């Protein structure tokens, strides 16, 4: 299928679905994902794809996530997970925290670099389960990412949002995010794999 990831970062986050119920997020904490979390993260990736209108899901396999996120040095991405229950009790949390609760959301991100501002984060996916949307979980995931950004000297965090997702766009504006099309006149571009291969063969 065509990779829908330019809209993934906002599709089912804090304001993702108007029909989503307002659950309780008081016992949800955010921590860095561990290897054993990735089967559930892989499931949520498919839930996000279905929410976006791609029920067949992405082509990425669990083995890809394990290889690229945990077996590669440096890893190609990092993941934050929102966990409910079994001691989950706050917005903080790090890689050393005990797990065991239910994973109810995730943010899949990677480190990038800007020739203008140096270190950057890119948010590929932000997802919260329907029962906890609009309950503060998406904000907690982004708050934890912001804390990491401060600790690592990151100057900016970038992501995409679906044009028609007005609720998500309003939520992100409330956080201080700006639309680069308006402020800088920038459009997002992509080379898909066939075009990458074609370009690589060009003499």
Automatic annotation (TrEMBL):
Spell out the CDD domains in the cross-references: NAT_SF
Q: Which Pfam families match?
A: Acetyltransf_1
TM annotation in the entry:
none
A GO molecular function term, named singly, is: N-acetyltransferase activity
Query: Could you identify this protein by its name?
Result: (diamondback moth) hypothetical protein
Q: Does the UniProt entry include the keyword Transferase?
A: yes
Name the UniProt key words of this record, in alphabetical order: Acyltransferase, Transferase
Residue ranges of every copy of the N-acetyltransferase domain listed in the record:
28-196
Task: Please name the Gene3D superfamilies in this protein's record.
Answer: 3.40.630.30
Regarding protein family, the annotation reads: Belongs to the acetyltransferase family.
User: What PROSITE patterns does the annotation carry?
Assistant: GNAT
List the residue ranges of the region (Disordered).
1-29
